[in-house]
TrEMBL record:
Residues 30-160 form the VTT domain. Its main location: membrane. The keyword Protease does not apply. This is Membrane protein DedA with SNARE-associated domain. It is found in: Cell membrane. It is a multi-pass membrane protein. Keywords: Cell membrane, Membrane, Transmembrane, Transmembrane helix. GO terms for cellular component: plasma membrane. The chain crosses the membrane at residues 12-30, 50-71, 137-160, 172-190. The keyword Thylakoid does not apply.
């Protein structure tokens, strides 16, 4: 994974960062931690500059998240009901849960989008309900860009601190990413087995 990212960054420069960050949000788990971390290392070597790196990375994050926002907006809220009723167990939610989430999102959707930008996996998933609840596009873009910019800045400076030792980033981020997905998978399996529809 690291070699692929390095090759794409070397080939595309800032545009390569943009493509990788968009891809990270469309088809996880291309890890933003590694992408922006390696970008930060490129800054430390003098191959890139901080501001363009963060700007292109954030633009990629916004575009990638907009992909799921667009899908959610076209599916709509009510059209999602038959799918929920057929697959409630595997989704571990019923229609009443969707209605609760919908009401919550309508009231506090902006800061939810912002906060979820700092969470693995969920920072992409949250774009779907944003579209389904018809959050204004400008609001979605602003909150997504704000959260993504902060997260990308943190990752970039982490990469700068590591300098050119990209293997250190892969050594620690790789196991953490794997452990995170294992925990999510186990938690999901437990929820599927114990889930019961309300009413």
């Amino acid at each position: 994974m690291t070699e692929f990212i390095l090759d794409l960054i070397a080939w595309g420069g800032y545009f390569g960062i943009f493509l990788l960050m968009a891809l990270e949000n469309i088809v996880p788990p291309v890890p933003s931690e590694v992408i922006m971390g390696l970008g930060g290392m490129a800054v430390a070597r003098g191959d890139m500059s901080v501001v363009p790196l963060i700007a292109w990375g954030t633009a990629g994050s916004v575009v990638g998240n907009y992909f799921w926002y667009y899908i959610g907006r076209n599916i709509g809220y009510e059209r999602f009901r038959p799918f929920i009723e057929r697959n409630g167990r595997w989704l571990t939610m019923g229609w009443s849960d969707v209605e609760t989430i919908h009401r919550f999102f309508m009231k506090r959707g902006g800061w939810v989008i912002f906060v979820f930008r700092f969470m693995p996996t969920f920072r992409t998933v949250i774009s779907l309900p944003a579209g389904m609840t018809r959050m204004p596009i400008w609001q979605f873009v602003i909150w997504t860009a704000a959260g993504s910019a902060i997260w990308n800045t943190v990752l970039t400076y982490a990469g700068i601190l590591l300098g050119s030792h990209f293997s250190q980033l892969d050594r620690y981020v790789g196991p953490v990413a794997v452990a995170t997905f294992v925990v999510i998978f186990i938690g999901y399996g437990w929820r599927v087995m114990t889930w019961k529809p309300k009413g």
